[in-house]
Specification:
The chain is globular. It is 48% helix and 18% strand. The chain is built from twelve helices and eight strands. InterPro entries: AraC-bd, Homeodomain-like_sf, HTH-like, HTH_AraC, RmlC-like_jellyroll, Tscrpt_reg_AraC-type_HTH. It comes from Pedobacter cryotolerans. Keywords: DNA-binding, Transcription, Transcription regulation.
Length: 298
């Protein structure tokens, strides 16, 4: 067995008439892909709408309930697992990072939706009954298009997919807050993109503020207004998330992880991790990899 968390590409899974998208009823998908119940990562976008079932799931080490009326979205690279108590049902869509790129003039279009932010507290959404009915109809239309003997009209599928995103976003208060001020929304997304590119090297808000041509106070106010946390916390959370993702790879020593994350030494990395997570990196690794190994052996 590999000691690291497996990473799956969309071509590892059965296609839906187009190699860049998979659409299925969830019960069938969950039975066909038992290996995806344990911790894994994707290189593609992934969303599931539950209409039945119960249990728990983890997205980037945060635990959420599985229940009817819940929809969640994931971006490439996130760590995910399911633990069902009763048999689940619903719908699942996986699509590649370039599936919509040729269809959209704005290549950053998905960034307008808060549930594609990579922030787990914005990715799991409980939908009201009226919205559940609307998106169920959309899922059924997408499935119907895939089951016809004719070649699927890909533009129709893409249009339905975008309609689904818009219907869900209307129930997201964080999405409304972001679109109320386009300039600040763009500024915040630029900051988040810069963190993603530089979190191993740049750790101070003032460094990012300089890159954005704003003051550190402005950057902090922006993060507090839209996200409820400081700029420094946002940077730190990304460093810790990457540390967790690396720690569940048993092939890497803690000292190697400290080096990858650009800490001066292993001791400083251990103190940093324990200060914000309450446990040492080794303790976190033991708790999470033991669960992964036990689930794999079931």
């Amino acid at each position: 067995m590999k000691s690291g968390i497996p990473i799956y590409e969309i071509n590892n899974l059965k296609a839906y008439k187009n190699d860049d998208i998979l659409v299925s009823r969830f019960r069938h998908y969950a039975k066909e892909h038992q290996h995806l119940h344990t911790a894994h990562r994707h290189t593609f976008y992934h969303l599931v709408f539950f209409t039945d079932g119960s249990g728990k799931q983890q997205i980037d080490f945060n635990t959420y309930d599985v229940k009817p009326g819940l929809i969640y979205f994931m971006i490439p690279g996130q760590v995910h697992s399911w633990d069902f108590e009763t048999e689940p049902e619903g719908f699942i869509i996986n699509f590649s990072t370039n599936y919509l790129s040729s269809f959209l003039l704005n290549q950053d279009y998905l960034a307008k939706f808060s549930f594609f932010s990579g922030k787990t507290n914005q990715q799991v959404i409980e939908l009201p009954i009226e919205t559940q009915q609307k998106i169920t109809a959309i899922f059924e239309d997408i499935l119907r298009e895939g089951h016809t003997e004719l070649t699927a009209e890909d533009d129709l599928v893409k249009t339905l997919l975008l309609r689904l995103f818009i219907e869900v976003s209307r129930n997201s208060s964080s999405n409304q807050n972001l679109t109320n001020n386009l300039y600040n929304h763009t500024l915040l997304k630029s900051f988040q993109n810069l963190i993603e590119q530089n979190f191993t090297n740049l750790r101070l808000p003032k460094q990012y503020a300089a890159l954005l041509y704003i003051t550190p106070n402005h950057l902090n106010a922006l993060c507090n207004d839209f996200l409820g946390i400081s700029a420094g916390t946002l940077i730190r959370q990304r460093v810790i998330l990457e540390a967790k993702r690396l720690l569940i790879n048993l092939d890497l020593m803690v000292s190697e992880i400290a080096d990858k994350l650009n800490f001066d030494d292993q001791s400083y990395f251990i103190k940093f991790f324990k200060k914000y997570e309450g446990i040492t990196p080794e303790k976190f690794r033991k708790l999470n990899t033991n669960n992964h190994v036990n689930n794999t052996r079931k």
